[in-house]
């Protein structure tokens, strides 16, 4: 009887040590994600503001594209009011989609490219994106390492127990 209790106690302690080790490792993997995002957050805000200027210029040019305007009206407030990192990344990705949509509109409506201010803002966004790309790569690498940790069996059991879930990657231009 004493041997069974001892074995059960050893197994329980080993399980607790393993759970603690996995929890600390997953928790430690979140710090680089937060740091990488903090490094690019200002540039993402600057980029979002400039994309907003392009949306306004598109509307002033008489281009009525419901997809663009509805996606922008949804994404920008979600981005500026995001309470969590995941919400902010999701909204930033939606803003990127709006920018790509604007770029497709320039092919259909050459009046946009004819406007020097539109081109200047567009080039400014490209400059910001060039500066953002290394930071986005660092963020995405940190997210990939974290996602592998929380989705790898048996660590996924501990991740689910403590509410760790996969995070969203930032879209790159």
UniProtKB/TrEMBL annotation:
Membrane topology (UniProt): Single-pass membrane protein
SUPFAM superfamilies xrefs: LemA-like (SSF140478)
Assigned GO CC terms: membrane
Subcellular location field: Membrane
InterPro entries per the UniProt record, alphabetical: LemA-like_dom_sf (IPR023353), MamQ_LemA (IPR007156)
Xref: Gene3D superfamilies: LemA-like domain
Pfam families named in the record: LemA
Transmembrane segments: 6-23
Keywords assigned: Membrane, Transmembrane, Transmembrane helix
Main location: membrane
Family: Belongs to the LemA family.
UniProt name for this protein: LemA family protein
Organism the protein comes from: Morganella morganii (Proteus morganii)
Taxonomic lineage from the root: Bacteria, Pseudomonadati, Pseudomonadota, Gammaproteobacteria, Enterobacterales
């Amino acid at each position: 009887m004493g041997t069974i209790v001892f074995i059960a106690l050893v197994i329980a302690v080993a399980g607790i040590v393993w759970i603690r080790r996995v929890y600390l490792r997953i928790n430690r993997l979140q710090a680089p994600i937060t740091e990488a995002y903090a490094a690019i957050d200002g540039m993402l805000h600057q980029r979002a503001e400039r994309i907003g200027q392009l949306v306004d210029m598109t509307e002033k040019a008489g281009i009525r594209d419901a997809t663009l305007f509805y996606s922008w009206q949804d994404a920008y407030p979600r981005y500026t009011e995001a309470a969590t990192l995941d919400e902010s990344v999701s909204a930033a990705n939606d803003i990127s989609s709006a920018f790509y949509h604007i770029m497709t509109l320039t092919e259909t409506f050459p009046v946009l490219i004819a406007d020097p201010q539109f081109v200047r803002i567009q080039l400014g966004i490209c400059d910001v994106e060039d500066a953002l790309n290394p930071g986005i790569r660092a963020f995405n690498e940190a997210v990939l390492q974290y996602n592998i940790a929380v989705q790898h069996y048996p660590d996924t059991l501990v991740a689910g127990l403590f509410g760790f879930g996969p995070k969203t990657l930032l879209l790159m231009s």
